[in-house]
Amino acid sequence: MIAVWYDLLYEIFLAKPESLKSDKKTVTIKEVLDCPSIEEFVKYIANKEMKSLQRGSVKIFLEKNEQIGELGAISKDEIDEIGRIMEIRHLYTHKNGIVDEKFLNSYSNFKIDTEHQMSIETICKKFVYLFAIAEKVDKKAIEKYKLSKLIEDLT
């Protein structure tokens, strides 16, 4: 799921390089001269931007990212829910489902060092929810940034 957001943003950067503009970001002359063309420079900067974004949480990424925020496709409540789902994912991926203090910040009804359990049905519902949000964002991005539509609707 995380890759979907980054892939979409990368496509936006390539389709609309002006979206990379910022007063807060700098590049060196070497970085510019190391790229054989402006297209390669845009790809280089887009990749550099993506690497910096991949270090944080998905929730913060969605809250702070201008390109996705400008789409108006995700509400604050949806961003919060995505953050909670990703915390569950993190718990299962990195902690084998064992509740830790960080997890308690969002899910206070659990106890530290206990096993978090979730039914397959609930997991599937969470996936469907995330895919629906991703599809909604994707459609808005295709429309706003005039991106190519490679895959037909999944629904």
Structure description:
By secondary structure, the protein is mostly helical. The chain has one domain. Helix content is 62%, strand content 0%. It contains eight helices and no strands. The chain has helices at residues 2-15, 29-33, 38-53, 58-64, 66-69, 76-95, 101-104, 120-145. α1 (2-15) packs parallel to α8 (120-145) and α4 (58-64) runs antiparallel to α6. The longest helix is centred in the last third of the chain and has 26 residues, at 120-145. It is elongated and about 55 Å long. The mean pLDDT is 87.
Q: Count up the domains.
A: 1
- Distance linking N and C termini: 17 Å
The coarse overall form would be elongated
Query: Rg, please?
Result: 18 Å
What is the chain-wise order of helices and strands?
Answer: HHHHHHHH
In the predicted model, the low-confidence regions spanning at least 5 consecutive residues are: none
Largest sheet: none
Structural class by secondary-structure content: mainly alpha
**What's the average pLDDT?**
87
Percent strand equals: under 5%
Q: Count the beta strands.
A: 0
- How many DSSP H or I helices? 8
Helix content: 55-70%
What are the defining features of this structure?
elongated; 155 residues; 8 helices; mainly alpha
Write the layout of secondary structure elements.
Elements: H1 2-15, H2 29-33, H3 38-53, H4 58-64, H5 66-69, H6 76-95, H7 101-104, H8 120-145
Helix pairs in contact: 1-3, 1-8, 4-6
